[in-house]
C-alpha cells in the first residue's frame, strides 16, 4: 500500500531536532529537503545569569515564568556549572512556576519540578490573560527571555503590580550560511516542493531576512500561497506567517513534531501522488 507522502517533497527548517524530524516525515514516504535556519547560542553574560540564579536561590523571587524548554535547560546548565544545581532545583520548588507551553513543562519535569500555571494559549498574550486572574501586587516575578527582549510582556506584568526581573540565557544565530539559505529559497520558488514546515516564528523571520535582501520575498510569498502547503506549529509562528501575508494550510493537533509530521501525511491521504 503506498504511503501518503510518496513522490512528495517536504522542506524542513528545524535545526535542533533536524534528523529526528526528517525521519518522522520520511517514514510516510516523503523526500525531505532540509535547511536548518537558526540555532540557539548561549549568551556571553554568565555573570548576569549567575546573579539571577543567586537571586532565585536566596528567595528573592515569588514566581518564575519560563517561555522555552531551551531556556530551562540553559539556566539549569549554568546552575550546574556553578555547583548550585541542588539549590536551584530546591528554589524552584518553593515558588510559583509558570510555563508558556509543553516544551518548558517537559524540561521542568526532567528536573523534578511541577508547573503551577500554564495558559490555554501558549503565547505572551495568553500568559498575560491567565496571569491577569492572579494577584501579582508586589510579587517578584522572574522572566526567562528567549532570543530577544519581550518588553510588551514585561510591561503587562508591571501593570499588574509585579516587580519584574528578566534573564536572557540564549539568542539565535544562523544555522546555515547565507548561500545555503538562498539556494533553499530558490528551490522553494522553482520547485518541486510540496510542503514547507516551520516550528517557530524566528525561523520565518530569518528566512525572510535573506529573501528580503535578495529581492525574492514577493516571489516566495506567492509560491507559499499558491503552490506549496505551509505546515506550522503554534499560534506565534502562525502569526509571523500572517504578517507576511502567508496562509498556513496544515496544523498539528498538538504543538509537537510527531503530530506535525502526521498532520502533513493526513493532508495527502487519498490525494493522487
In one word, what is the shape? Answer: elongated
Low-confidence stretches: none
Find the structural class using helix and strand composition. alpha/beta
Largest sheet: 4 strands, parallel
β-strand percent reads 15-25%
Computed Rg: 20 Å
Distance, first to last CA: 13 Å
Q: Strand-and-helix sequence, N→C?
A: EHEEHEHHEHHEHEEHEHHEHH
Strand order of the largest sheet: 2-1-9-10
Description:
By secondary structure, the chain is an alpha/beta fold. The chain has 12 helices and 10 strands. The strands form 3 sheets. A 4-stranded parallel beta sheet has the order 2-1-9-10, with helices on both faces. Strand 1, helix 1 and strand 2 form a beta-alpha-beta unit. It is elongated.
What would a concise description of this structure say?
It is built from 12 helices and 10 strands. It has helices spanning 18-26, 46-57, 69-81, 85-92, 102-110, 124-131, 151-159, 178-190, 201-214, 217-226, 235-243, 257-268, and strands at residues 9-12, 31-34, 38-42, 63-66, 96-99, 140-145, 163-168, 170-174, 195-198, 229-232. Strand 6, helix 7 (151-159) and strand 7 (163-168) form a beta-alpha-beta unit.
Task: Note the topology.
Blueprint: E1 9-12, H1 18-26, E2 31-34, E3 38-42, H2 46-57, E4 63-66, H3 69-81, H4 85-92, E5 96-99, H5 102-110, H6 124-131, E6 140-145, H7 151-159, E7 163-168, E8 170-174, H8 178-190, E9 195-198, H9 201-214, H10 217-226, E10 229-232, H11 235-243, H12 257-268
Parallel strand pairs: 1-2, 1-9, 4-5, 4-6, 6-7, 9-10
Antiparallel strand pairs: 3-8
Amino acid at each position: 500500500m503506498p504511503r501518503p507522502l510518496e513522490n512528495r517533497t517536504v522542506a524542513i527548517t528545524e535545526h535542533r531536532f533536524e534528523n529526528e524530524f526528517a525521519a518522522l516525515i520520511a517514514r510516510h514516504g516523503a523526500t525531505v529537503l532540509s535547511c536548518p535556519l537558526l540555532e540557539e547560542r548561549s549568551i556571553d553574560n554568565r555573570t548576569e545569569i549567575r546573579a539571577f540564579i543567586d537571586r532565585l536561590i536566596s528567595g528573592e523571587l515569588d514566581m518564575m515564568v519560563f517561555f522555552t524548554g531551551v531556556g530551562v535547560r540553559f539556566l539549569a546548565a549554568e546552575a550546574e556549572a556553578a555547583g548550585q544545581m541542588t539549590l536551584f532545583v530546591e528554589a524552584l520548588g518553593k515558588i510559583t512556576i509558570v510555563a508558556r507551553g509543553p516544551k518548558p513543562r517537559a524540561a521542568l519535569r526532567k528536573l523534578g519540578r511541577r508547573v503551577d500555571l500554564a495558559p490555554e494559549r501558549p503565547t505572551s498574550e495568553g500568559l498575560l490573560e491567565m496571569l491577569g486572574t492572579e494577584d501579582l501586587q508586589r510579587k517578584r516575578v522572574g522572566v526567562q527571555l528567549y532570543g530577544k527582549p519581550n518588553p510588551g510582556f514585561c510591561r503587562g506584568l508591571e501593570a499588574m503590580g509585579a516587580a519584574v526581573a528578566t534573564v536572557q540565557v540564549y539568542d539565535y544565530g544562523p544555522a546555515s550560511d547565507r548561500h545555503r539559505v538562498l539556494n533553499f529559497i530558490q528551490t522553494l520558488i522553482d520547485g518541486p516542493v510540496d510542503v514547507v514546515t516551520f516550528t517557530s516564528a524566528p525561523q520565518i523571520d530569518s528566512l525572510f531576512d535573506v529573501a528580503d535582501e535578495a529581492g525574492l520575498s514577493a516571489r516566495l510569498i506567492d509560491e507559499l500561497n499558491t503552490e506549496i502547503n505551509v505546515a506550522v506549529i503554534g499560534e506565534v509562528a502562525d502569526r509571523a506567517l500572517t504578517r507576511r501575508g502567508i496562509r498556513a494550510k496544515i496544523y498539528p493537533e498538538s504543538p509537537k513534531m510527531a503530530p506535525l509530521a502526521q498532520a502533513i501525511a493526513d493532508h495527502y491521504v487519498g490525494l493522487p501522488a
